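User: Can you fold this complex?
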Amino acid sequence: DIVMTQSPSSLAVSAGETVTINCKSSQSLFGSVRQKNYLAWYQQKPGQSPKLLIYLASTRESGVPDRFIGSGSGTDFTLTISSVQAEDLANYYCQQYYDTPYTFGAGTKLELK
Amino acid sequence: QVNLLQSGAALVKPGASVKLSCKASGYTFTDYYIHWVKQSHGKSLEWIGYINPNSGYTNYNEKFKSKATLTVDKSTNTAYMELSRLTSEDSATYYCTRPLMDSSYIYDVMDAWGQGASVTVSS
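Assistant: Here's the predicted assembly.
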């Protein structure tokens, strides 16, 4: 199975700051046929279902604010949230869909400083 | 709009089984696989497997092969997941999800989610 390692596990921020969440996979997620990275990011607020933010490592899902930026390739990926807002306080998970079983990172909890 | 409506919370005894449902609406049910995801309390997410509603083909995470059984009823646009021989380790919230279509290509990322069904295993 592909292991997804996320860091940090938690992050305390002030509104307006820029934050970076890292995700490393145990093998490359780059698909040579379609030349894409099969990595997604989700946001989960307390008591809610997860919400898809980013797929193909850097493509924002429809309706996701442009302050959410996904980057990276191969085995190293980053979710950057610029100018964090109070509504962004949540848990964030990366997921690989390069190969089954699809696997998720352990999550990063974004909290208010 | 796309909606996945799951059955309610379940309290079940150890050793018993439970069957969760997920009723889809707002799209053509047979056009998309249905995936199931487990989230233990306060923990991360685990992919259980998916089913092709059109053919009934399933793909399970090896970890859940002897635990979960995925089925569908095309006549009611409903997917089911039965969990058997329940233990405390199966206490969790279970989500049904639908993958994303982009430019006619379906990616196995979870675009639409049900509201989750909480399963508590306790005597």
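Chain B has no helices and eleven strands. Chain B touches chain A at residues 44-47, 59, 61-63, 95, 100, 102, 107-111, 113-116 (CB under 8 Å).
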